[in-house]
Design a protein that fits this description.
Layout: H1 3-9, H2 15-23, E1 27-29, E2 32-33, E3 47-50, E4 53-56, E5 62-67, H3 89-93, E6 97-98, E7 107-113, H4 116-123, E8 131-137, H5 143-151, E9 153-155, E10 158-162, E11 166-170, E12 174-179, H6 186-193, E13 198-206, E14 209-210, E15 220-222
Parallel strand pairs: 7-13
Antiparallel strand pairs: 1-2, 1-3, 3-4, 5-7, 5-15, 6-7, 8-12, 8-13, 9-10, 11-12, 13-14
Bound molecules: uracil.
């Protein structure tokens, strides 16, 4: 693929901006500055250096972010900055979007991609992708609450009960809850339905992916591809 097209596909701007980066000597490969925007490069395992930073080529972007509290998942946030501000400009430019949403005060694993089909697949209710939430509750958790969450609770917008795929008490005021849908405020509303209240909410896994212990709040990382 031509270098200017590679840069364009990765979100570095219009073709003219990309050619300008090359002309300015800001694109390097294997330690050498590349001076021809029309040079053909194989994209497999390609890692460019753009403005001094390594940029591995990805035909489609899939990244994980450790979402901190105080960020909204919306592209047009109302009260807090968007999670997209935590990503480098090329990822925003190529249109990555969160796969599902976490509330502003929820922390933990958020996936983002520019692959519309993957977003559809992973957010469609048909696919039942399990997500694990670590919940800090206001009141002590008892066995009845855990049983009711597993049996199913009715939320105000749907007469069909929603149940946790797995649920266990963790310490006196903690719950580990696995959900396979993603309804609006689902964890908070389910916990409220059993007469408790969510004080802290953290997502630790999404499908087969777990938030790495060494990914600090606000940091992101490439995911090589959707596993499976
Ligand atoms: N359930 C909620 O209530 N909030 C989230 O952010 C995610 C799941």
């Amino acid at each position: 693929m031509k270098l200017s097209h590679i840069l364009f596909s990765q979100g570095f701007g219009t073709r003219r901006v990309c050619a300008g980066l090359v002309d300015a000597g800001l694109v390097r490969h294997d330690g050498q500055a590349l001076d021809d925007p029309d040079v053909d490069l194989p994209t497999e395992s390609l890692v460019l250096e753009v403005e001094g930073k390594p940029w591995p080529f990805h035909a489609q972007a899939l990244v994980m972010l450790h979402k901190p509290a105080g960020y909204e998942c919306s592209q047009k946030p109302k009260h807090h900055p968007s999670v997209l501000t935590l990503l480098p400009a090329p990822l925003r430019q190529r249109g990555v979007q969160p796969i599902g949403r976490l509330d502003e005060d929820t922390t933990g694993l958020l996936l983002l991609t520019d692959d519309g089909k993957l977003i559809h697949k992973l957010t469609s209710p048909k696919h039942h992708v399990p997500k694990v939430y670590e919940v800090g509750c206001k009141h002590p958790v008892d066995a009845t609450q855990v049983e009711r969450l597993l049996a199913g609770v009715v939320l105000d917008d749907d007469p069909a009960p929603v149940r946790a795929a797995a649920c266990e008490a963790v310490g006196e005021r903690g719950l580990r809850l696995t959900l396979t849908e993603g309804k609006y405020h689902q964890v908070k509303r389910m916990v409220a339905a059993v007469s408790n209240r969510v004080e802290t909410l953290h997502r630790s896994t999404f499908g087969p992916l777990t938030l790495p212990a060494d990914l600090a709040p606000g940091q992101w990382r490439w995911v090589p591809g959707w596993p499976g």
